[in-house]
């Protein structure tokens, strides 16, 4: 499936793997890139040395394009960018801040920059900065989220900018991909569905929590302190929400949440750990390989788009043409 995104990045399928912190590491990244998508290393929480090691591991397992995501709120961003330049990674996605201070450096080294954005206002600012594409992420997504839904956000962003837009949040099958194209996107970014793949390097308990989840299993914490995060409900989340409703300080909230993602991802503690996942997790009900997942999603999307192309709606009825 060829779009402006596949042409820009040299990938087969217009699908990005979400840069999930602690999870988006070599086993998953390499598998996604080898399957024709864009694998993305999540550098959040990494030192420069760890990022360099991950980049080299990925290079040892794929010759296909991959990217590094930068959470721009991290204090060691200049060091991480230096590693990206030295290791000749030519695609970067950014979030949690503005890439403005680094755009000249990126452009000097021929790095394609794709900004993850939650609103039209920020989308326009990123286009003016000179980023090459955008990921418009709706509040349905797992992890750090904005407030606007994917259905509302994507068409407004695609109408407001002239650069390619990738839709994120709530995509787990071919129907989601077809819907994203209908909204004007040139590709999709998927996170939650990748959690239930063989190659995803998380504890089995984490995967099982996603498999067991339904459409009402997630909630958002941290809005009161300006850091909204969507996760699957559990004991830690219940305690966090109780404290948040009692107007607890940031310090009090961090006491129970600090290190919680690592607890879930590596230790398999799905009660006191943070199982970040999106609202679409109710559709993630089987373990497959990354390749099986991507090819089946796009086969379904292609068939659906073809079917819709032969359909018109008239007088309240759907008619094949």
Assembly status? single chain
Poorly predicted regions: 316-321
What is the CATH H-level superfamily of the largest domain? Aldolase class I
Strand content: 15-25%
Outline type: globular
Number of E strands: 13
Structurally, the number of domains stands at: 2
Strand order of the largest sheet: 1-9-8-6-5-4-3-2
Percent of residues in helices comes to 40-55%
Given this structure, which CATH class of the largest domain is correct?
Answer: Alpha Beta
- What's the order of the H and E elements? HEHEHEHEHEHEEHEHEHEEHHHHEE
| Distance between the ends | 24 Å
**What is the makeup of the main sheet?**
8 strands, parallel
Average per-residue pLDDT, rounded, comes to 91
Instruction: Write down the CATH topology of the largest domain.
Output: TIM Barrel
Question: What descriptors fit this protein?
Answer:
321 residues, TIM Barrel, 2 domains, 8-stranded parallel sheet, 17% strand, disordered C terminus
Please, could you describe this protein's structure?
The strands form three sheets. Strands 1-9-8-6-5-4-3-2 form an eight-stranded parallel sheet. Strands 7-11-10 form a three-stranded antiparallel sheet, covered by helices on one side. Residues 316-321 have low confidence and may be disordered. The relative contact order is 0.13. The chain has helices at residues 4-9, 26-34, 48-61, 77-86, 103-108, 120-129, 150-160, 174-182, 204-212, 235-245, 250-257, 260-267, 290-309; strands at residues 15-17, 39-42, 66-71, 91-95, 112-117, 133-137, 143-144, 165-168, 187-190, 218-221, 229-232, 311-314, 317-320. A hairpin with a 7-residue loop joins strand 10 and strand 11 (229-232). The chain is α/β, with parallel strands linked by helices. 41% of the residues lie in helices and 17% in strands. The protein folds into two domains: 10-202 and 284-294, TIM Barrel; 204-279, no CATH class. The longest helix is centred in the last third of the chain and has 20 residues, at 290-309.
């Amino acid at each position: 499936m060829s779009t402006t995104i596949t042409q820009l990045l040299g990938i087969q399928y217009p699908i990005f793997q979400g840069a999930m912190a602690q999870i988006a590491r070599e086993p998953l990244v390499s598998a996604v890139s080898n399957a024709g998508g864009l694998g993305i290393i999540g550098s959040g929480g990494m030192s420069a040395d760890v990022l360099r090691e991950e980049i080299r591991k990925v290079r040892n397992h794929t010759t296909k394009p991959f990217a590094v995501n930068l959470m721009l709120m991290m204090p060691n961003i200049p060091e991480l960018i230096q590693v990206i330049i030295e290791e000749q990674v030519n695609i970067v996605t950014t979030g949690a801040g503005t890439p403005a201070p680094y755009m000249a450096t990126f452009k000097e080294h021929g790095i394609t920059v794709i900004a993850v954005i939650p609103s039209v206002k920020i989308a326009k600012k990123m286009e003016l900065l000179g980023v090459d594409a955008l990921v418009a992420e709706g509040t349905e997504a797992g992890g750090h989220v904005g407030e606007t839904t994917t259905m509302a956000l994507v068409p407004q962003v695609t109408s407001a900018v002239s650069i390619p837009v990738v839709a994120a949040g709530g995509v787990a099958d071919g129907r989601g991909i077809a819907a994203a194209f209908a909204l004007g996107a040139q590709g999709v970014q998927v996170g939650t569905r990748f959690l239930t793949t063989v190659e995803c390097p998380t504890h089995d308990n984490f995967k099982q929590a996603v498999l067991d989840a339904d459409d009402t299993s997630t909630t958002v914490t941290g809005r009161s302190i300006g850091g909204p995060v969507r996760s699957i409900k559990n004991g830690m989340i219940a305690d966090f929400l109780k404290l948040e409703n009692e107007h607890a300080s940031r310090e009090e909230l961090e006491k129970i949440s600090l290190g919680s993602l690592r607890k879930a991802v590596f230790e398999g503690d799905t009660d006191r750990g943070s199982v970040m996942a999106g609202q679409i997790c109710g559709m993630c009900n089987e373990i497959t390989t990354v390749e099986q997942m991507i090819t089946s999603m796009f086969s379904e999307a292609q068939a659906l788009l073809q079917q819709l192309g032969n359909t018109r709606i008239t007088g309240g009825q759907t008619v094949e043409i």
